[in-house]
Write a structure and sequence with these properties.
- This protein is of the alpha/beta class.
- The protein has one domain: Alpha/Beta hydrolase fold, catalytic domain (Rossmann fold).
- It has an 8-stranded mixed sheet with strand order 1-2-4-3-5-6-7-8, sandwiched between helices.
- Strand 5, helix 4 and strand 6 form a beta-alpha-beta unit.
- Helix 4 runs parallel beside helix 8.
- The longest helix has 16 residues.
- The radius of gyration is 17 Å and the shape is globular.
- The chain starts with a strand and ends in a 6-residue tail after the last helix.
Amino acid sequence: MARFECSFFSSTLGLHTAMNVILPDGPPKTRFPTLYLLHGLSDDHTNWLRRTSVERYAEAHGLAVVIPNVHRSFYTDMKHGLPYWTFISEEVPSLARSWFPLSEDRERNYAAGLSMGGYGAFKLALRCPDRFAAGVSLSGALDAAHLREDGPVLTPAEFERIFGSDEALRNSQDNLFHAAETLAAGSAPAPKLFQCCGTEDFLYGANLRFRDHARKLGFDLYYEEGPGSHEWGYWDAGIQRALDWLPIPGR
């Protein structure tokens, strides 16, 4: 695998930022299937590579990986901040494909993440189902409307800066429960979903709520749970199972 750390100016954010990209060795016969791998609230674009062996795991699947930096934005066009949803859903894929041989085909594009990144990955899959065939959430902060009750995630001030009021979030596409309902009611192809959470994780209840909601709506959702808390050992094991599960064509 080859690894590139890209420092670039984002016209969406109006500032310089960074992302890591890892590519399989050798010239591709076609553009590489691509996983957009999203970090958690206290992390950045380096943590997945520093704390797991995801580079080695991706190599076994011939998979390119794009890991952008979004700070503590919750992958959202913030009410009082920067437009990180537009950045992650539009600008990052466009720039990455202009610099690297990454596939544009829906069936060869996927999103995955942990904690806040699990929320972001499902958000990409549910809101951009024409561009992502699958989404993976590891210990995801999936119930944004209850973040303050679920555990030490966002302060009230951070919540307001990102999402605004409770009512505004509840009826918006930033609420994954509402986004899932909107997709289920439409005609767009639904992505496959992989969800896992440790039973000792403070976000376990939120994961159960989203699992039950998605299944009620008829989504193709694979769910697993077991002993584990909110920590890198669980996510290192989980990303391996998720990559094995990904619906990569031709393997």
